[in-house]
Write a structure and sequence with these properties.
single chain; 289 residues; alpha/beta; 11 helices; 8 strands; 43% helix; globular
Length: 289
């Protein structure tokens, strides 16, 4: 991975931070994003110390807004000649329905719109790489149907269920992205990292869980308790694999599980009509058209 330039959104904590650590140890130039300069710089210093690499940079951005995503793309494009790997790792599980400064529901803004818009805005840098890779992380229970009339929880909001729905929509968007970039230098794949103890999972409240899961709340809390990054390191394996493996060079439009194996896409993702409708909506909301 020497000389590879890798951008990891949300790389200052959780799974993203562990991904950054492993890739830095492998010799890559790693760029992580964060919202806070203080905590971001602390994370970068820790990553440099643990990895033994000084090739770790920080870019500040608020990925909940279009302006924040555009600012991140501009910062990156000004500082780096190309982008070899983009890892759309940042995610949000909001406890209640909230709108961003753009008037977009926060789960949809961070989990769907941000990676969609960022990937578009970085296409020139990705095209400058001989073999660029775009990797997006899904999460939750990404299954079931996609509610086109409830993309922004307009009809109903239910904690982790809404989060999972947003991640399912992300999968559909990235599958469509892969179809639209066939035959180019860029591959687009999605991976499921599995459950890990992160700041996001530790902030989950009982009210955010589906009814049946509230019965096992004590067990859930034990699973996501602070573990020094061990579970996040394990969960980062699929991201690292997709970023580095020669076995998947040129492979695009695939979904990989926690064991870095190809898995079947959820049936909802395979519906071309649904994907194209989501693409059109997301394109409009991101103000690309």
């Amino acid at each position: 991975m020497k000389d590879k330039i890798i951008l990891i959104t949300g790389g200052t904590g959780g799974i993203g931070k562990q991904t950054a650590l492993t890739l830095a140890k492998m010799g890559a130039q790693v760029v992580v994003t964060g919202r806070s300069q203080t905590s971001g710089e602390e994370a970068v210093q820790e990553l440099k110390q643990l990895s033994g690499s000084q090739q770790i940079d920080l870019l500040l951005a608020d990925l909940s807004t279009r302006q924040g995503v555009r600012s991140l793309a501009e910062q990156f494009n000004q500082r780096y000649a190309r982008l070899d790997v983009l890892i759309n790792n940042a995610g949000l599980a909001a406890p209640k329905r909230e709108l961003t400064a753009d008037g977009i529901e926060s789960n949809f803004a961070v989990n769907v719109l941000a990676p969609f818009l960022l990937t578009h805005l970085l296409k020139e840098s990705l095209n400058a790489s001989p073999a660029a890779r775009v990797i997006s992380l899904t999460g939750g229970e990404a299954k079931g149907q996609i509610g086109l009339d409830n993309l922004q929880a307009e009809r109903s909001f239910s904690g982790l269920t809404t989060y999972s729905h947003a991640k399912l929509v992300l999968m559909a968007v990235m599958y469509e992205f892969a179809q639209r970039t066939q035959g180019t230098n860029m591959t687009v794949n999605v991976c499921y990292p599995g459950q890990a103890s992160t700041q996001m999972t530790r902030s989950v409240t009982p009210e955010m869980l589906p009814g049946f899961m509230r019965l096992i709340w004590p067990l859930f809390k034990r699973v996501v308790r602070e573990d020094g990054g061990q579970s996040a390191a394990k969960a980062s394996r699929s991201s690292v694999y997709l970023a580095t493996s020669v076995e998947i060079a040129g492979i695009s439009g695939q979904y990989f599980d926690t064991n870095c194996k190809r898995a079947a896409w959820p049936q909802a993702v395979l519906d071309q009509q649904t994907r194209q409708k989501i693409w059109t909506i997301t394109e409009r909301l991101s103000q690309l058209i």
